Amino acid sequence: MAPDRRTLLADAALDVLADEGIRGLTHRAVDRKATMPLGTTSAYFRTRAALLTGLVTRLVQLDQTELQSMAEELPPLRTVEELVNAMALLTRKRLIGEGRRRSLARYACAVESVRDPELREILVPRENAGREAVRLFLTAHGGTDVENRTHILLTCIDGLVFDRLVSGGDVPREALEGLVAAALRQGPGVAGRARTGVESHLSPPPTPPF
Question: What distance in Å separates the CA atoms of residue 154 and residue 130, rounded to the nearest whole number?
Fold first, then answer.
């Protein structure tokens, strides 16, 4: 089934945001990107706030679909190596091609959401098969405070993606291994230890999309 016009415009808005940044996101720019008559975008998204909301809703939908597909394609995560491999695959997807463009748009929207509660609510991490796979892995390996550790692990991965998006290159595998080791470590203070040893790779992460 072909996407409806609102979806096509939201996809075009994502492209504009990735190519031109938040200042370049205008109704006219989206019309041009979507190759539609001037005024089409404003007919579907009356204000810039409505356009951002539509864009972010579409972005989250695409991210959730990607995570669901990955969870279905990968075998159950039983070993540390399998979990690290899955995280490495996700970070690569987020740094090349369409995944990179979505990452650029995502972080721009995360900054905007600081001043926009509606955007912030849409970007709140939500349940998906990928998050559940990490939660099940930590539980199977005797992890405590699994919900908090899952959140910390995924937030740190998001921070690594942000850093590589800005600085270039791939996310170092040793950084991912360090995050998993910290998440599995027993005892109090896991939140602090999850950041120790990878600080040189991390920038402050926006709201995680996982």
Answer: 10
> Which tens digit of pLDDT belongs to each residue from 137-157?
999 998 888 999 999 999 999
Give the C-alpha separation, 82 to 208, whole Å. 22
pLDDT tens-digit readout, 1-17: 557 999 999 999 999 99
pTM of the model: 0.81
Structure tokens that stand for 91 in this block: 């970070």
Strands (DSSP E) contained in 50-180 are none
What type of residue sits at position 165?
L
Residue matched to tokens 């990928």: 130
Return left, alpha or beta for 97; rule: phi > 0 is left, psi -120 to 50 is alpha, else beta. Answer: left
Rg (CA), the chain: 18
